[in-house]
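Reviewers of the previous submission asked for a worked example of the structure-prediction workflow described in the proposal, so we include one complete record here. The input consisted solely of the amino acid sequence. No template or homolog information was supplied to the procedure at any stage.
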Amino acid sequence: MKHVSILGSTGSIGTQALDVIAANSDKYKVAALAAYQNEKLLAEQIDYFKPPIAVLVDKQAADRMVRSYKGQTKIVAGEEGLLEAATCNQADTVLTSLVGFAGLNPTIAAIKAKKNIALANKETLVAAGQLVMSLAKENNVNIYPVDSEHCAIFQCLQGDESKHIKRIILTASGGPFRGRTAVELENVTIEDCLRHPNWSMGRKITIDSATLANKGLEVIEAKWLFGVDYNMIDVCVHPQSIIHSMVEFIDSSVIAQMGMPDMRLPIQYALSYPERVASNFPRLDFTTLSALTFENPDTDNFPALKLAYMAGETGGTLPCVFNAANEIAVYAFLNSEIAFLDIAKVIRYTMENHVLIANPDLEQIHAADKSARQYALLVVKDLTKM
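From that input alone, the workflow returned the following structure tokens.
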């Protein structure tokens, strides 16, 4: 029996993780649930799973729940509550599915508390990869990737050694705008961006998929998870999203992991590893697949991927800055403050303004995140005037 603390339980990954746990109640038990402010859904989750601890980061929402809740679960609030959920004695595994930089501190706290990590918060490794991986090694903690691409690579590497890797091939769907030019992207709407052809995800990651920023974040995450250089990480657009990623080995053999585009599979594998658990997930029927196609990513019309490689190869605080600027830009777009193509502009201008720290500690990473957000907001303000 594994006891799982879920940070981000009301989001897309969190709710699907709870589906997995509910279907395997003989194998998993919920130790803690944490959400930002969706008190209605969290209350339903508490009623069903009855965890010892539940968290609402938004203190007003938490206060309302404390007043209305009559059960046995301890309700806590704020960042302190989030850290309590990440380190609670009842949990042996922490699924970190918070959105963005907010996942960094709880993940570090969980690692220091010697909890194994099921990582769905790629921004943690983007912002502080060296620090987080060093802490995990120091505390003998395993980090199991939940992103479908990284879970695929993790599976492809079972039975082999990283020294045999020639290159990692991250697949990308290409998002809703694959094949479009910058001119055609000038007036796309929020609704256009949120119509992902294959995956059902949260709003922020869906916009990241449309800009290819998400694939850039995944490139940086892959570098830290698998200990490879950036020149060993390629991105290949695969519109069908059946091959989730591949590994080419030094002898020219390529191993691919395939499956339907369903996030419950990588979530379940991250929780069950090293075992595999039977499921009723949709199955691949190869007789109905007309084709599996592949193409190079278009980094001219979708420059966020190129900027991510630049940030990763430069290293230091620049990946953190890339992530911070992207978060500000995406939410500005979702608030109708800037256009779709402005997202990459905000990232680029913020990166160009940054004064690099080559080997940052945690305090310097937080400072870089804060200053990048402040500058990105100024860029958004300037773009809004245009």
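The chain has a mean pLDDT of 95. We consider this example representative of the routine output the project will generate in years two and three.
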